[in-house]
Design a protein that fits this description.
Number of helices: 7
Structural class: alpha/beta
Mean pLDDT: 92
Order of helices and strands: EEEHHEEHEHHEHHEE
Radius of gyration: 18 Å
CATH topology: Spore Coat Polysaccharide Biosynthesis Protein SpsA, Chain A
Largest sheet: 7 strands, mixed
Helix content: 25-40%
CATH architecture: Alpha-Beta Complex
Number of domains: 1
CATH class: Alpha Beta
Shape: globular
Distance between the termini: 30 Å
Length: 250
Amino acid sequence: MKKIVVYTAIFGGYDFLYEPEIKPDNVDFVCFTDNKDMKSDTWDVRYTLPLYHNPELQNPYVRNARKYKTLPHRFLSDYEYSIWVDGNAKMTGDVNELVNEYLQDKNMAVYDKMCCVLDPWGCIYEEARRIFNFGNINIKREPWKGIKAYKDDPMLMQKAVDKYKKENFPENLGLLSAMVLVRKHNEKDVSSVGEEWWEMIKYYSHLDQMSFNYVAWKQDFQFNWIREDVRDCRHFKNMGVHKVKGGKSK
């Protein structure tokens, strides 16, 4: 079995594929995409058909990427460890350090949103409140956008919140910042969480930060927190949002 893979998924042509600044010899790089023209000197670009095509669905390309994000055991089973990176992230450090530091006693590690300088909070309910408030401001400013003024369909987000409250999911239980995920993904506890996480994204909100900590709580899943701001940390840098067609690497 190969050891470590850094991987991402880019659908809809709205992200660059960033070349890593550091390329350890024992690390492979894989990108799943629906863009036949995407090229890279570093990444193994794997063309795949999108799961969702409905233009009326809020951000269908995001859900397409989230399938690969949550289910590495299905697509990368020949690797022992995986590091997921969002399409707007650039790798700037040696990810071997993350595996060695955080996957010795647990099978998954996530970045703590409480450490994010711009938006530090540690509660799914607070995350939902902020998203609703932001959407309400947007729709007052640009009412013609309808639900597209929100980061996701507000009815689906409320459906998730109602489910959590009904099941007595507690407030302030922690919140991941999901730009990067560090996993020993073939382990049973990790794959089980990934499968249920994907079900939540499929049928509730596509916003993955709205459901991971709920699923972890429900399954009594133990993981490690990485107490760094993932947007600008030892190993990664957030490059911002790019709505640029083309998909060439940078």
